[in-house]
Amino acid sequence: VERGKSRVVRLEDDGASIVPVASTAGLNHGIELAGGYLYASTPTTVYRWPYQTGQAGNNLDYEEAQEVIVGMDLNASNELGAPGGHTT
């Protein structure tokens, strides 16, 4: 996840080219590739996009993102998450 840009990028084999792969508002950490999906998160929500290894281009946008986990910012009285969301 590229900090400050709310997107997941892939570094090309040449070591210099960055290819945007997915984006949605607030992405800042937490990525995983599993079961044909790319997962990434904001402090409050985990999203996933259909993704195949080597898929290129910035064609995974907010409209395609599926919410997998929401509400990671619930307050202590709800006994889940941390104020303002989870941190890493």
Broad shape: globular
- Helix-strand category: mainly beta
Through-space gap between termini: 13 Å
What is the helix content?
under 10%
* Tally of strands: 6
* Total of DSSP H or I helical runs spanning 4+ residues: 0
Radius of gyration: 14 Å
Q: How does the major sheet shape up?
A: 4 strands, antiparallel
Average residue pLDDT? 76
Strand order of the largest sheet: 3-4-5-6
Question: Topology as H/E string?
Answer: EEEEEE
The parts where pLDDT drops under 50 for at least 5 residues are: none
β-sheet strand percentage: 35-45%
Which SSEs are present, and which pair or pack?
Layout lengths: L6 E5 L6 E6 L5 E6 L2 E5 L4 E5 L15 E4 L19
Structure description:
The chain has strands at 7-11, 18-23, 29-34, 37-41, 46-50, 66-69. The protein is mainly β and 88 residues long. The strands form 2 sheets. Strands 3-4-5-6 form a 4-stranded antiparallel β-sheet, with no helix packed on it. A two-stranded antiparallel ribbon has the order 1-2. A hairpin with a 6-residue loop joins strand 1 and strand 2. The chain starts with 6 loop residues before the first strand and ends in a 19-residue tail after the last strand. 18% of the residues are buried. The mean pLDDT is 76.
Which key terms come to mind for this protein?
88 residues; mainly beta; 4-stranded antiparallel sheet; two-stranded antiparallel sheet; 6 strands; globular
Short overview:
This protein has 88 residues and is mainly beta. It is built from no helices and six strands. The chain is globular, with a radius of gyration of 14 Å.
